[in-house]
């Protein structure tokens, strides 16, 4: 019989894989998890969308008149940043009740916790509605692995509800805003800086566009939970040297949308507002995720959490986007809860950490969710 690792130890094993994205190289980490789950009795498949870029899907049980419960998380991590780390980012150092490492909170601890919970419950899950674990590559650069799985569709099957193990300090969240990231390009004609009248300045066009973006009216009411949509110009670049008229400029635009907003219509309105001088190209396009807090399954999650410190949860949403935005296109928007052991404020930080006790708590929560769903 296979020995099931402790969630802390499995998290440390996952941290040891350098899956910084780009380039990702998630295949070895996915294989490690896949082999562990396969030995535990799960049916496992790998889905590679580029060399060494693999997601893994593991399932057990099913066919009991009820779709399985889904869990998802990603194994790629962001770069380390310019600042020096006090703790080696791939060593999984434990100090003062904290596990340090790139991905400790975002979100290898969450992946480890639901993997261990599923392995612990495997014996009873075989003869039940079952669970599906979807562990993805390339979330950090736009949910590439999740979109690949959604396009394949057959690999995902059906689920009845979804748990996303992103960092929430084990507080259940019921959605997040969508993200529409656009690149706006303006073009001109170069000329000598002493004769600007002979050129056509692309930076001036970009500057005019930025002012229009600042004043853009979404025409959308505030969402009860997520508030209003937002637009931020994150960068503006143009020109090659001081004494030439720039013939190209680029604006990067970060838009966060609320439930009910149509990204295609939003892009059309933005294009009309900016005019023909700005060519818009999408970088990331993921929709909002939202489940009504009155949903019966969400209420059952709240009831489970009510016995834990902090009492019954209040409806809240995440500030970041998740793979659920891509996967739920294939799954037809099942009720979704974002719940994981990581610390939200530690995501992408230098000396990223997760509290060790939260990892074990997450295993207990995930196991109870599996037990309740498959009862």
Q: List low-pLDDT spans.
A: none
Helix/strand/pairing class, anyone? alpha+beta
Treating each run of at least 4 consecutive H or I residues as one helix, how many helices? Answer: 10
Q: Give me the side-by-side strand order of the main sheet.
A: 1-2-6-3-7-14
CATH superfamily of the largest domain: Zn peptidases
- Amino-to-carboxy terminus distance: 24 Å
The total beta strand count reads 15
**Count of domain modules:** 2
CATH architecture of the largest domain: 3-Layer(aba) Sandwich
Task: Please give a handful of descriptors for the protein shown.
375 residues; alpha+beta; 4-stranded antiparallel beta sheet; 15 strands; 31% helix; globular
Quick gist of this model?
This protein has helices spanning 7-15, 27-39, 104-120, 122-125, 144-152, 202-214, 263-274, 296-306, 324-331, 356-374, and strands spanning 43-50, 53-60, 69-74, 94-95, 98-100, 131-136, 161-164, 175-176, 178-187, 230-238, 248-257, 279-286, 289-290, 336-338, 353-355. By secondary structure, the chain is an alpha+beta fold. The chain folds into 2 domains: 7-176 and 288-374, Zn peptidases (Aminopeptidase), CATH 3.40.630; 178-286, Alpha-Beta Plaits (2-Layer Sandwich).
